[in-house]
Amino acid sequence: MAILSGCASQPPAPLEKLLTEQPPQTEEELIGAIEKLRSESKELTISNNMYRRQLSLNYEEDANHISDHQKKVIKLFFQTLPDRDNLSIILSISPSSDEGFNSINDAWVRVQELRSYLQDYSVQIEELYIPDQEPDTVTIQVLGGDSVQ
After folding, report:
1. For residue 85, what are the CA distances in angstroms to 13, 42, 53, 97?
2. Would you kindly state where each structural domain of the chain is located, as residue ranges?
3. What percent of the chain is predicted at pLDDT more than 70?
4. Nearest CA to 47 among 14, 80, 89?
5. Which pick of 16, 75, 76, 118 has the fewest CB atoms within 10 Å?
6. DSSP letters spanning 63-108
7. What is the reported pLDDT for 84?
8. How far is CA 66 from CA 11, 71, 111, in A?
9. The Cα angle at residue 74 between residues 99 and 68, in degrees rounded to 5
10. Three-class SS of residue 137?
């Protein structure tokens, strides 16, 4: 089952400023607070020229292949990106729930299949093995915009 998470631009907007003020009580106040955060984050150089999005996928314990549902989620994720030119992808893969070598082997099979699938979106793909990440999880981070080479 795939889970879509972390679709906010990076770096994160300065939430500390919003949290120190009175929480929004109405929908209009909430919209105003969101617009304030957006305008403040546009002042950051990375926000003007780049964006970062993240998608996390969870694998069933004994599954090593991308499901049709996961492919649809990935496709939708890439369709929501503001700019498809100049994308760089980072795959953070965790070990599987298996023990020992099987755990590493499962992670390798998963990342190679994902890499092959994601090459339709970008040839710039970096793979990271993150042993501390939740088992049976892969995180797809996408950097895009004018400044990505």
Report:
1. 24, 20, 14, 36
2. 15-46, 50-145
3. 69
4. 14
5. 16
6. --S--HHHHHHHHHHHHT-S--SS-EEEEEE---SS-HHHHHHHHH
7. 57
8. 29, 7, 10
9. 70
10. strand
46, amino acid identity:
I
Measured at the alpha carbon of residue 79, what is the angle toward residues 60 and 31, in degrees to the nearest 5? 100
Q: Please compute the mean of the pLDDT values over residues 55-81 and round it to a whole number.
A: 88
Confidence of residue 117 (pLDDT cuts 50, 70, 90): very high
Q: What is the pTM of this model?
A: 0.63
Q: What average pLDDT does the chain have?
A: 76
| In this structure, CATH architecture of domain 50-145 | 2-Layer Sandwich (3.30)
Give the model's confidence band at 49: pLDDT under 50 very low, under 70 low, under 90 confident, else very high: low
**Can you tell me whether residue 142 is helix, strand or coil?**
strand
Neighbouring-strand partners of residue 3: 56
Distance CA 137, CA 23 (A): 34
Tokens representing 44? 């950051």
Strand 125-129 with 2-3, pairing? unpaired
Token pair for residue 96? 């599987």
Q: How far is CA 67 from the centre of its chain?
A: 18
Tell the residue number behind the tokens 């998470």, with chain if given: 5
Average pLDDT over residues 112-135: 90
